[in-house]
Amino acid sequence: MLSCLRLSLVFLSLFSGWGLTFGLSLLLVWALWKYGATFILDGLSFFDIHASLNAPPQLNEMLLAGGAAAILLVFLQYFIFSISPLKYRLKKIFPGTNLKKVDKESVLAKHWQNICTMLNIEPPPLFIAETHTLNAFAYEAGWKKAVIVSAGLINHFHIAEILWVLSHEAAHIKYKDAKALTLMTSGSRSIIFGCRIRNFILSLIARSLSFLRFVPGSKLIILILIFPLNLISILSSFTLKTSLFIFNVLDSMISRRMELRCDKVAAETVGYEPAISALHKLNQKKPPLLGLNTHPCTKRRIRLLEKHKKSPAI
């Protein structure tokens, strides 16, 4: 349910953000072509192009085209994630870190197998990232899945605490949270890519306007055209940035709910005591910033686990 809500948020924010941005940008291109190109071409007496520019384009069609382009770009990026070699994608998540796949015959691998069996999922590959940070991560794109645990966490935690962390990440795989995160990443990259395309279109239009200076008496029309160019630039930038901010705030809210759910599932799988103990070691010292934290406050996570421990039915 939460994963579906998260994906709906991705598509809604992209459709609105890209749709408005490119709808406005394409409308500006049409306006500049109608009033700028005709001025130049007719002024130079090359040919008459008024007949082909009588009817303005439908703005709603432009909005749909922009939104559809965003959705297609998300699926394209997700497809690239899916076909990329797994270790290559994991290296992108942990740059500059050596990743070592856990041997299937090791004790940790056998514990991992048992956890996945209890959660009724096929055990994905388990990797150890050779870093001193305390971190763990679940990755899924297409048919490729993996869970990464840092060496620092392995060395710092007791075995029961490690099993709770692994159960937590396995729960993310079980409920498709990791797949939703990959699509969300594709969506945020799509919005950033949209900003670059917008900047390219507007810079191209601005450079095209420079040719008007060679046409006699064109100073007035340059001033007339520069105003909508600046206006559309401001509006489209505001639209994309607002879309990205709202997207991040809402997505962070959903992400925090996912974390709490996985906390509870993992605690029910391996025990509440190691869950609470592990969270104490992972205690976050920085307070949430404008609701953008993807993880709930650690004190709240511990408090809820203690509540579930006393009242398992809740």
TrEMBL record:
Bilayer-crossing regions: 7-33, 62-81, 221-250
Keyword Protease: yes
Cofactor: Zn(2+)
Classification via Pfam families: Peptidase_M48
Cofactor stoichiometry and binding remark: Binds 1 zinc ion per subunit.
One Gene Ontology term from the biological process aspect of the record: proteolysis
Gene Ontology molecular function: metal ion binding; metalloendopeptidase activity
Domain Peptidase M48: 119-307
Alphabetized UniProt keyword annotations: Cell membrane, Hydrolase, Membrane, Metal-binding, Metalloprotease, Plasmid, Protease, Transmembrane, Transmembrane helix, Zinc
UniProt similarity note: Belongs to the peptidase M48 family.
Record's protein name: Peptidase M48 domain-containing protein
Species: Geoalkalibacter subterraneus
Lineage, uppermost ranks: Bacteria, Pseudomonadati, Thermodesulfobacteriota, Desulfuromonadia, Desulfuromonadales
